[in-house]
Specification:
It is a single chain. By secondary structure, this protein is of the alpha/beta class. 24% of the residues lie in helices and 28% in strands. The protein is built from eight helices and 14 strands. It has helices at 38-44, 62-65, 68-73, 82-87, 163-171, 178-184, 190-199, 220-231; strands at 7-13, 20-25, 28-32, 52-56, 78-80, 96-98, 103-107, 110-116, 124-130, 134-139, 154-158, 207-211, 235-237, 243-245. Strand 5, helix 4 (82-87) and strand 6 (96-98) form a beta-alpha-beta unit. Helix 7 (190-199) runs parallel beside helix 8 (220-231). The radius of gyration is 17 Å and the shape is globular. The protein binds zinc ion (2 copies). One zinc ion binds next to loops.
């Protein structure tokens, strides 16, 4: 992108098969999650990976971290909880930046603030700021969000499952009964996602991007419709290959 041309978000994967998003600005690219093969990142950037200023990883699950070693091996600084590096035996190495919840970090032209969320392993959400983008809330793999973040411009929020779809699937033997308990304590239900939207000031938000939908227990069309009704903003479902303009003033 050219100087001053804003911010572009490209999704390379969203959901349990692998998560990765690229925030591309003129002064650098920020990777969000390392859960797809690094070759996919290279291809998306037409092999100009020198523009990557850093990579944020929310937690140790492989759908968020499977290419961690390749990313570090390419000399890209990764910011993640200690547990993420330890889970792959690469703690305290060059390019590994252990982060702490409720702390802020600078990654190229991006300002990042990490906060704890409620998953079944230690996990963080991120508030990410860039002068071309404004303020982005990035929250995935959590049963809830207890923070209200002021003056947001963009929201990327997990909407993993709907309780009624999950119940139908359990009743019909499509998913095991035990999945209910796991999801309840680790992933965001549609009504909870609506609560997050209602609890936060949407006045300055350009769009809501729903991420990490369950393959079985979600309904993309319904999720998009119900969240856009609550948010009053254009709402998108993240899918591999999609690009969305996240510039502060897109028009
Ligand atoms: Zn996940
Ligand atoms: Zn997870």
């Amino acid at each position: 992108m050219m100087e001053g041309l804003g911010m572009r978000m490209t999704c390379l994967g969203s959901g349990s098969s692998g998560n990765c998003y690229l925030l591309e600005a003129a002064d650098g690219v920020l990777m969000l999650e390392a859960g797809v093969r690094f070759n996919e990142v290279k291809k998306a950037l037409r092999f100009k990976i020198s523009g990557i200023v850093g990579c944020l990883v929310t937690h140790e699950h492989k759908d968020h971290s499977k290419s961690l070693k390749d990313v570090i091996g390419c000399g890209i600084r990764v910011l993640a909880l200690d547990e993420v590096f330890q889970s792959q035996g690469i703690a305290n190495r060059a390019f590994c930046k252990s982060i702490e919840p409720m702390h802020g970090y600078k990654v190229g032209g991006f300002k990042v603030f990490a906060f704890p969320v409620a998953h079944d392993v230690p996990c963080v959400g991120f508030m990410i700021e860039h002068e071309e983008m404004g303020k982005l809330l990035f929250v995935t793999d959590t049963m809830m969000l207890e923070y209200r973040i002021p003056s947001l411009n963009h929201v990327m929020l997990e909407a993993n499952y709907a309780d009624d779809i999950l119940q139908y699937n359990i009743d019909h033997g499509i998913v095991p009964n035990a999945m209910r308990d796991r999801l309840l304590h680790s992933h965001m239900e549609l009504q909870t996602a609506k609560g997050v939207i209602r609890a936060n000031d949407m006045a300055g938000v350009n769009e809501v991007i729903l991420i990490h939908l369950s393959g079985n227990n979600s309904d993309a069309g319904r999720f998009e419709r119900e969240i856009s009704e609550v948010s009053g903003k254009p709402t998108y479902i993240a899918m591999a290959g999609m690009t969305i303009d996240l510039s502060k003033t897109p028009f």
